[in-house]
Amino acid sequence: MTHAFLDLPPLSAARFASIEDRVARLLDTRQDVVITQGEALLPLEGAIRATAGPGTTALNVITGPYGQTFGNWLRDCGATVHDLAVPFHTAVTAERIREAFAEHPEIDFVSLVHAEAATGNTNPVAEIGEAVREQGALFYLDAVASVGAEPVLPDAWGVDLCVIGAQKAMGGPAGVSAVSVSERAWARMAANPRAPRRSYLSLLDWKERWIDGGRKTLLHAPAQLEMLALEACLERIETAGLQTVMTRHRRAALATRAGAAALGGGLEPYVYEERDAAPVATTLRVPTGVVASELVARALAGDPALPLAAGGGALAGEMIRVNHYGPDATADAVRASLDAVGAALAERGLSVDPRRAREAVDSTWQ
Asked: Both 130 and 67 in a single domain?
């Protein structure tokens, strides 16, 4: 098998372009799509540095840790940044966005995370996109966690820069990512003297040397195995049907919420409202006196492959995350995760009902 990988012929420009076209179909977009040769932080940072500068006034929406990161990048670019932070257990609304525009009518850039896997919430991008269009601002969206789990439609929603990664709901590789770029965004980059050029962060290099050249010559040797893995991932989604894949993720989220409620032991949904809950991952608040990271460590002791994690940073004490995405968007993965959490809670003397939890998962999945 090792020799087979080593003997692969080089990935051609034509095949690279065909994979980009499949990403465009996944997003139902007519915008240019650039597949970037690195994890999604590469196009996320590259897109901000290409389009933002000292003349930019940005509305940076914070519904989780990535929104905080984007604000840091924007400030580093010299942009004036107005943060709109909402509690991580909820979602932002189009009304809040419009209020920010009324308060700061000079805003010309909006950065938003669609679904925050780290906090388990998802934002109503279609409605927010309408508000951003009314403002005339450039719309930058991190859809890394949401793509494959819920609709991601940059053209319909007026998204100018839509970044995706394949490692979550798409069930693909982490080593490549992609961004769809509108004509407005390309124009903003071209007019920005601080936009990276002749740089690994540069989207303009891909525009000028790849897209404008008719996609005939690649800028550098592609990450071949990751590109082939992405191609296989896209084919798998196309074969199953995107709607089928999204439905599976939605069922996993609903089943996890229902199963956790039936399990008991003091577990509660971290994201209060079901409509604000992301289908890619479900976050749960542990009862008082229980440390989430310790509970997760005990739950994983029996099966380290379960899609369980504690919250990051300050959330490590209070939040459990069930990462039911990609191959783990199944009833079996949800049942096994809740069984393990229930056993860990029972060890601490808390009253749980794993049988009732399994029944709730099965009933909801159907």
From this structure: yes
pTM of whole model > 0.90? Answer: yes
Residue 324 to residues 23, 246, 252: CA-CA distances in angstroms? 23, 12, 6
Q: Average pLDDT for residues 77-100, to the nearest whole number? A: 97
75 burial via Cβ count (<10 Å: 0-12, 13-18, 19+): middle
Residue 1 resides in a domain? no
Would you say 310 and 120 are in contact if contact means Cβ atoms under 8 Å apart? no
Residue whose token pair is 């919250």: 311
Range of the domain at 289: 242-365
pLDDT attached to residue 229:
97
The model's pLDDT over 93-125, given as tens digits with 9 standing for 90+, comes to 999 999 999 999 999 999 999 999 999 999 999
Q: Count Cβ atoms within 10 A of the Cβ of residue 107 and give its class: 0-12 exposed, 13-18 middle, 19 or more buried.
A: buried
Token pair for 189: 């980059």
- Between CA 252 and CA 246 the distance in angstroms is 10
Q: Show the DSSP H helices in 198-306 as ranges.
A: 203-206, 224-240, 242-263, 292-301
Of 205, 240, 275, at which residue does a domain stop? 240
